[in-house]
Design a protein that fits this description.
Distance between the termini: 27 Å
Structural class: alpha+beta
Oligomer: single chain
CATH class: Alpha Beta
Helix content: 25-40%
Strand order of the largest sheet: 1-2-3-4
């Protein structure tokens, strides 16, 4: 398995749209699915915002998800989404490991839904430390080094 990160391209967006529209993935992420217009509008801004670092996650040339960093409430955060058909193969861990060499600002923050134990394991495996609960049944993490 070779996981590669690259800039998000126009051809990736329909794939990422399908990923976020999956009801199981949406429930796991505790993030509501959006219609196409509501999905595409933020991506147009993200891709040109110099404070954001969006990357497509590729495995053997196939886009399997996305990862990126952004500023939220004054803190640098990382988020990722891997399509459900690709879960359980180590892609999120490999993508986050690779991304941490691109996004070098520390501390770096992340959050995942309380019930998303797979994402919690990915964060902890990549060196993030659990710092406590957040509103809306989320778990907060921080990476200092």
């Amino acid at each position: 398995m070779t996981v590669v990160l690259r800039e998000v391209e126009d051809a990736d967006l329909p794939i990422l749209f399908v990923h976020q529209g999956d009801p199981v993935g949406s429930e796991m992420a505790a993030f509501p699915s959006r219609d196409e217009a509501a999905f595409m509008a933020p991506w147009a801004k993200i891709r040109v915002d110099p404070s954001c670092t969006p990357r497509a996650v590729l495995v053997d040339g196939e886009c399997v998800g996305n990862i990126g960093s952004f500023v939220m409430e004054g803190k640098r955060e990382v988020g990722y989404w891997i399509g459900r058909e690709h879960w359980g193969r180590g892609y999120a861990t490999a993508a986050l490991t690779a991304f941490l060499s691109i996004e070098v600002q520390r501390p770096l923050y992340a959050a995942c839904a309380e019930h998303n134990l797979g994402s919690a394991r990915v964060l902890e495996h990549c060196g993030f430390t659990y710092v406590g609960p957040e509103p809306d049944h989320m778990r907060a993490y921080r990476l200092d080094a």
